[in-house]
Design brief:
2 domains, mainly alpha, 204 residues, extended
Length: 204
């Protein structure tokens, strides 16, 4: 694969993508699509020159649709898997598989910054305060505005809620540690049983 071949294929995929973006997406979503194409083109572990360009285009759209909840019918830019497959004249199952491959190669997870709206990425990003509290970034942004207009009584209520949330987090963390300890204990016991069983077989 030469550099010229790669550039040519990227341009082919882009030319296929743009009509779809014009018909179904807005400028912001189109930007995510092109950014993912550019990101994919830099990967060496996978060659975009292999396979049909229509499959790559459909896979890219599928990823962006999934990240931005476009498969939700309440979304303004709702898309169905059939819409994507029909537009690019590709198999729906193959498109889904290609999308999963793209996500794996590009190490994309839900809430991926730069490929979805800030209101979505904030939902999956957590922030820890100096006091040790952990919140969704989106929730914290909303509460910062509210706190600015609170009186002393309201502030005390918020502090009490935060303290209760911290206590709950610590309880959940302790339960998780105890659960993991029990799993390790059971695994060790099973290993010991297998070891004694094997030793007993030596004398049969």
């Amino acid at each position: 694969m030469s550099k010229d071949d790669k550039i040519q294929r990227i341009n082919e995929v882009k030319e296929i993508l743009l009509p779809f973006c014009t018909k179904y997406l807005n400028e912001e979503l189109t930007g995510y699509v092109l950014k993912l194409l550019e990101r994919l083109s830099r990967k060496r572990v996978i060659s975009i020159t292999r396979g049909k360009p229509e499959i790559w285009a459909a896979g890219i759209i599928y990823v962006i649709a999934r990240l931005n909840f476009l498969f939700d019918k309440s979304n303004q830019f709702y898309l169905s898997a059939d819409t994507i497959a029909d537009f690019f004249e590709v198999n729906k199952s193959t498109t889904s598989q290609k999308a999963s491959l793209i996500e794996e190669v590009c190490n994309i997870s839900i809430g991926e910054k730069g490929l979805c709206g800030e209101e979505i990425s904030d939902m999956f990003e957590f922030v820890q305060t100096p006091e040790g509290f952990i919140f969704h970034k989106k929730w914290l942004k909303e509460k910062i505005v509210e706190v600015a207009f609170m009186d002393d009584e309201e502030s005390k209520k918020v502090e009490a809620q935060l303290a209760e949330q911290k206590k709950q987090k610590e309880l959940e963390a302790r339960k998780e540690r105890e659960k993991q300890q029990e799993i390790r204990r059971q695994k060790k016991a099973e290993e010991n049983r297998e070891m004694f069983k094997d030793q007993g077989n030596l004398f049969e």
